[in-house]
Write a structure and sequence with these properties.
The protein is of the alpha+beta class and about 190 residues long. About 25% of the residues lie in helices and about 30% in strands. Strand 8 (about 120-125) and strand 9 (about 130-140) form a beta hairpin. The radius of gyration is 20 Å and the shape is globular.
Length: about 190
Amino acid sequence: MSTRGIDHLAIVCDDMPVAMDFYTRVMGFRLVHVRRVPFEQDRGQPPYDNLRHYFFDMGNDSLFAIFEYPKGLPRQNRDHVGGMQHVAFHVAPEKFDALIERVRSCGVNVIGPVPLGGRFWSAYLFDPFGIRLEFATDRSGASRSVVESVRQTEEEARAELETLFSDPVEVEKWLARMPLRKEEAKV
């Protein structure tokens, strides 16, 4: 792996003061960098000149960035191909319930927490621009990294991959690339 993880994740708003309030007061992020971005042809940048592009510290040496687009543009549909379905933030199990209560105390509706199977416990909310946010934690009691917590047995992964690929060779190819969890001995 040649990356360490997320440097920054960039979303779009149409009201930077509202975004700043929500992401600092509600989410607890800290504003760390403010700038304007000139439009550059052929770089895949937003199609507007001189946009605000502000960065927030979201913890663990990662940034959450926000572009401020002009008002009046249509909102994206997160459930269409190419849309961003949601952003999930990992929260330490011992801080999970307190974070949910703090966000609720800010007047924000929080759905959950709900068990999603395995280690996954999640709570959901929406930012002022309709972006679905998730707080995710591991309530299994095990002390594992995020990646380690989602590793599957070969049997679990095979069952899902066989719903995607009818060719057993393709299933085996993908299983060979996955860091699978060893089967636990049944007593």
